[in-house]
Write a structure and sequence with these properties.
globular; transferase; 190 residues; Acyltransferase; seven-stranded mixed sheet; 19% strand; alpha/beta; acyltransferase; 1-acylglycerol-3-phosphate O-acyltransferase activity
């Protein structure tokens, strides 16, 4: 898996992006979540950020990305295919992967799509909670071209409570106007 590359570093910086915050170097495992997932540009920007962080972060992606002529490239870049079309025990399988490793990072977009959604997919939460690993919340600030990294967030086991903290963090990222954030904050206000 390609983790760091001077080419990714250079392209990230030439595009005008920068990292704000960092991942603690002593943290052995985490589930990285990225929002908003709004454009195809998220992927190359994310590769640049990962390269600068120099952390071997795998990414979960729909299995269709790994088919055809580009499948090998996605695998080489650290991808892991997920079949989203079947009802499987994917959360437990991923928790088992975390539990079997001394060090493991993976990233996913909890929105599950580039379209606006009313709520997040909850698998990310139950993976982090089940594996007892923190969430590293990363916000793509397209307004200021900043990748904003929040300190590790440990789940409480109460998604209703924690989703509010997650929504508040992503609400603080300039330009992020997502329905799920508004819905979660409105629920809390009731």
């Amino acid at each position: 898996m390609l983790v760091s590359s001077p080419i990714f570093d250079l392209l990230f910086k030439l595009a005008g992006w920068k990292l704000v915050g960092e991942v603690p170097r002593d943290l052995k495992k985490a589930l990285v979540i990225v929002c908003p997932h709004a454009t195809w540009k998220d992927f190359p920007i994310g590769l640049g950020a990962r390269s600068l962080l120099k952390i071997p972060i795998l990414f979960w992606g729909k299995k269709e990305l790994f088919e055809g002529p580009f499948g090998g490239i996605f695998s080489w870049l650290g991808g892991y295919p997920v079949n989203r079309g079947t009802k499987s025990n994917l959360v437990d399988a991923i928790v088992d992967i975390y539990n079997s490793k001394d060090s493991f990072y993976a990233v996913l977009a909890p929105e599950g799509t580039r379209k606006d959604v009313q709520e997040l997919k909850t698998g990310f939460y139950y993976i982090a909670d089940g594996a007892k690993v923190p969430l590293i919340m990363i916000g793509f600030d397209f307004v200021n071209k900043e990748i904003k990294i929040r300190e590790p967030y440990y789940t409480t086991g109460d998604f209703q409570k924690d989703k509010l903290d997650i929504a508040r963090y992503y609400q603080s990222i300039p330009g992020v106007q997502k329905s799920w954030i508004k819905n979660y904050l409105a629920e809390a206000a009731e």
